[in-house]
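Field log, afternoon session.

UNIT: design team B
ACTIVITY: writing a sequence onto a fixed backbone
BACKBONE:
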């Protein structure tokens, strides 16, 4: 029902483990706040064309169902897949997390035990790595210089101008070359 702990995008695994160990199950379940927070963190990376993905883990049904649908559309538009992990046996929870994964291009996992959770988290990085799209654009700018040789019409025009100048000069100075 509220965000209790956040860990920014870091490579320090101990920091993430410390944050998870502090957590205690309590209150209701809301999907909107964590999905909005992740999107806020990841948008700048997407603007720099860096591939991103979210792993969303929950053990409950959302109390805010419907409120996060617009967020899912934005994740999809930005091509940020959400990989969901539902902990438990609740079919409605599995189906909702499957919908989230499906709408954003991610995958859904259901676990019922700690060993399953550990195996899922071992498998996830390779699944995400294979599925994230890499977009690249190449812009080629080349200056082209076109060299033209004088062709017959231009030579004829220049010759005509020179003859005209010679005639004018001859009439004015009465000089023969």
């Amino acid at each position: 029902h509220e965000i209790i702990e956040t860990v920014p995008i870091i490579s320090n695994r101990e920091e993430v483990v410390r944050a998870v160990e502090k957590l205690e199950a309590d209150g209701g379940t809301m999907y909107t706040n964590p999905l909005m927070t992740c999107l806020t963190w990841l948008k700048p990376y997407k603007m720099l064309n860096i591939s991103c993905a979210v792993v969303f883990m929950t053990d409950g049904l959302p109390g805010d169902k419907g409120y996060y649908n617009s967020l899912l559309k934005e994740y999809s538009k930005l091509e940020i897949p959400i990989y969901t992990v539902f902990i438990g046996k609740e079919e409605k929870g599995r189906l909702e997390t499957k919908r989230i994964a499906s709408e954003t291009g991610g995958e859904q996992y259901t676990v019922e035990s700690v060993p399953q959770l550990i195996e899922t988290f071992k498998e996830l990085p390779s699944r995400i790595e294979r599925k994230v799209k890499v977009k690249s654009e190449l812009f080629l700018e080349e200056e082209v210089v076109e060299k033209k040789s004088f062709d017959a019409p231009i030579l004829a025009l220049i010759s005509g101008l020179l003859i005209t100048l010679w005639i004018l000069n001859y009439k004015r100075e009465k000089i023969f070359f």
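LOG NOTE: Residues 152-173 form the longest helix (22 residues).
NEXT ACTIVITY: expression trials, pending approval
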